[in-house]
Amino acid sequence: MEIPRDTSPNHNPYITGTTPESANPNQEQPAVKRGSLDILLVDDDQLSLACDKLLLEREGYRVTAVNSGELALEYAQIRHYDLVLMGLTLPGLSGEHTAQLIRDPLGGAVSPRVPIIALSSQTGDRARKRCLKAGMDEFLPKPIIWEDMQHAIRCVLRGRNKTQAA
């Protein structure tokens, strides 16, 4: 028996949910005009990095994608970002440590007020609490559900986490 495969250009087996093109047109709109946001995307998994970057760009966001905490800090020092999407298991500096360095006012914070959303294969309340303690604003478990990412982005840009918004 052959298993049917979705070969449409919008199908991605690594991200669940609808893609921007197939999303409900009546759903809640972004907090700010699409295309007006610069996002720093940090993930050590090259496939996740490429897929997330593509989906975000299709939504109209300007995305800089890097694969380490050190590169994230370098880019954050030379350019203003409206949002950081941060993987946790990175080579060198972890995502948690990178977030702390971005936020640390005593260590010459790179961008103490930029919203940071953790993207993690670690699940559960313990991982979420560690991320929030490190200064991140929100936590999304992998695999990423596109609607959850959109909702988290809207919420952190409005100054609240998605749990408060529900």
Automatic annotation (TrEMBL):
One of its GO terms (molecular function) is kinase activity. Pfam families: Response_reg. Gene3D superfamilies: 3.40.50.2300. CDD domains: REC_hyHK_CKI1_RcsC-like. Residues 7-29 have a biased composition (Polar residues). Residues 1-30 are annotated as: Disordered. Keywords: Kinase, Phosphoprotein, Transferase, Two-component regulatory system. SMART domains: REC. One of its GO terms (biological process) is phosphorelay signal transduction system. Residues 38-157 form the Response regulatory domain. This is Putative PAS/PAC sensor hybrid histidine kinase. The lineage of its organism: Bacteria, Pseudomonadati, Thermodesulfobacteriota, Desulfovibrionia, Desulfovibrionales.
